[in-house]
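subagent[fold] <- orchestrator: predict structure for attached chain, return tokens only, no commentary.
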Amino acid sequence: MTDETTHHEAHATTPTVSVVVATHNRPELLRIAIDAILQQEYDGAIDLVIVFDRSEPDRTLETDADPQRRVRVITNERTPGLAGARNSGIMATVGELVAFCDDDDEWLPGKVAAQVRSLTGSAALTSVTGIRVAYADTETVRVPKAESLTMDELARRRVMEAHPSTVMVRRDALLGPIGLVDEEIPGSYAEDFDWILRAARAGAIATVESDLVRVRWGQSLFSRNWQIIIDATDYLIAKHPELRDSRQGLARLLGRRAFAQAALGQRRGALSDAWKTVRLSWRERRAYVAAAVALRLVSAERLMSLAHKRGHGI
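subagent[fold] -> orchestrator:
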């Protein structure tokens, strides 16, 4: 075996992993995210691209002292918001594999190595892991099963365990059959759901059944921007026939829409959507909590807090 052959075999098992972190005014949490990425025990190179979106870039974060752990800082030159920032980062990547981490999340030891093995050892285009949902003083473990990452299952129940901060994808698939993040989604809300649907449509999703990312729940910049949630929900339903064809999936989305309307004080619309939700699936609990908020039996904030404590969202 020649040295060149050995080099190529080693490269095949330790491809360069480019990591895109989009950020907006979260300097303390960002540094935690960066440190966790750079401290991953992985024999290959990790190329970290930090994208500052509508905020002044911090060039002090850049480093190329270790060619195996390079950090670059760029600004979002595309559509303002998370989708454009992620795409700016994607276009700056150089690795065969591309991963994402939100600026308020934290990769846990072993994530990169486990996902690289899951991709290099299969024909899958994408890989995801489980998460630990941190909210207040609680942590909830949520780990997806391989059978839950099909198009039918994703359309039916979203599978929040497959969080964007767990995603690793082959770069040629990301720039090819899957495509970039959709910058037309209102407020970039649920851009990750739209993308994972397209990923499932394009090919298999490998699942590492371990909680390898700490996700800080309730930090989302639009978790309570109810009108954006309504607009984005309408956009997704119109875009994806799989969502319209899934009674349970459509009920879930209409239930969320009803809750958002209730939170805005739009009682008539909330109750109307809650009724449509029940007709699609009487088991969809969002219909009942939306009706409760619309009828002022409980506040939206109270229900959001309870959901977050259990590692869930609305």
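orchestrator: received. Logging for downstream: The CA atoms of residues 122 and 237 lie 32 Å apart. Confidence is low (pLDDT under 50) at residues 1-10.
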